[in-house]
Amino acid sequence: MTNSDIIDSLELTARLMELHNGDPFRTKAFSGAAFSLEKVTEDLTGQSVADLIKLPGIGKTVATKIREFVETGHLAELDELLAQTPPGVLDMFRIKGLGVKKVKTLWHELGIETLRDLRQASETGRVAAIKGFGEKIQQNILDNLDFLESQSGKVRMDKADRLAIQLRDELAELGRVEVSGQVRRRSIEVDTVELLVESDDPLAVQMYLNAKPGLTQDVPASSPFTWRGRAEGTDVRVAIITYPAAQFDQQLFIRSASGVHLAETGPTGKTLLQSATNASAGSTEETIYAQAGLPFVVPEMRENEQAFRWSQRHQPDELITWDDLRGTLHNHSTWSDGKHTLRQMADYARELGLQYFGIADHSQTASYAGGLTPERVAAQQLEIDAINADYKAAGLEFRILKGIESDILGDGSLDYTDEVLATFDYVVASVHQTLNMTQEKATARLLRAIENPYTTILGHPTGRLLLAREGYPLDFRAIIDACAANRVVIEINASPYRLDLDWRWIDYAMNRGVLLSINPDAHEMRGLHDMQYGVYAARKGGLTRSMTFNAFTLDQMNQYVAK
After folding, report:
1. Mean per-residue pLDDT over the chain, rounded
2. Which residues form the Helix-hairpin-helix DNA-binding motif class domain (predicted)?
3. 553: how many CB neighbours lie within 10 A of its CB?
4. Buried b / exposed e along 231-252 (16+ C-beta atoms within 10 A)
5. Which of 108, 398, 403, 498 has the most C-beta neighbours closer than 10 Å?
6. Tell me: the pLDDT tens digits for 327-361?
């Protein structure tokens, strides 16, 4: 159990209390506690009621509920509320723009209890007819339903990766077990977590799996050699396939590449699939490519249709790796909505072996996230100077860079005067509000921000949240071309919730000479590790270390930001 689990349970309890017309003071206590705990860095699971009460916004009632949840894994009050709430009503909360009041109205006034009911009511115009809704909200509901249906049964890269590693470790006693499929290709969204087991006795493997707690077989979808089903706690499909040793390596390769990749034909006249199928037992993946007369492609790029064209100009060892990263440039601290102090964040970055840490707390318009006023900007920069002086006095070659994540306003302008913008080492310009523009307006907005001489990095360009929110529509070529013309770096936001810029546009950006920066958007120390997901996505798109902005050394970064 994690702090996030506790916070989520409190938030859901508060939401359902409001939905069921519960005591408003009690509802506020739960929602306020959830909000306050977002900033807590200590492990809540080990704290007593007396310790919890000492935390801001936590009263005795909520503290007692937290202990109940930690000790039993349940909140009796939440369970009761869930029992009174149709599952489809809960699903409506996943639709962007539908808060408790609107969901309550749809449920009570139209009797809507499933997403299917909601679609029918929207398609027939009944939702638009309700006071406070209208055509625009109705269309937003339909658009979001389409999006949610297209994402059904998928999980993000990070969740799929964790599940695959967990299953691989749990099945290790069977012998050789390898992760394959979408997870090995580092797909940003995964609908099947696939593993291969080496064995000459597929029946024994199936019996072992069916005796394993937490795994539920989908019998009709399974076969003697393939176990299909689900793992407890996730909706994503799981496939565990058994192969004998003589076929294992070939199948690991075949099942880790897309159909388009396997259909590529080399000068030998053989497709990659034919080469793999005919390869001798124990053949390496490099051998399989060589026998087809094709250049080796790393697993991450085996669903990139430009992979072989990329290979005409680059070698696999040019691809960015975690070890190539020298710094991180989009991070938050307790100055805005982060969980750890500036010094804690910077010290942790140094512990990870980085040479510099760029702070980019929220700008003043983002008041909901504690955005910095010009006066607080000046105060933060004084703290940065003091910490950098401490590093220098200690003989450490490490520096905090003074950055900001400036909101891009509705007209494309940045969030401070030029005088304030000039005080930063660099500026990450990002959109956080008004995400429903047309492609023409959204593109024009970003183009103006890119043309601002103080913009250094274009942050999470589309604003998407994977499996939850589509990004706003953009003319990507126009955006990338403008970044090339204005010497603006494009961010690959490494948060597994975003991975934005999408990897499919990396090749075009590199060809236009645009640098890319793998930034974690970290709001706490452990968030810095998200750069690994950014590296996975960057490698899928063919990003080289030479075109990675934060692979620059400290001296190179100093020279760049000083220009």
Report:
1. 93
2. 50-69, 125-144
3. 13
4. beeeebbbbbbbbeeebbbbbb
5. 498
6. 999 999 999 999 899 999 999 999 999 999 999 99
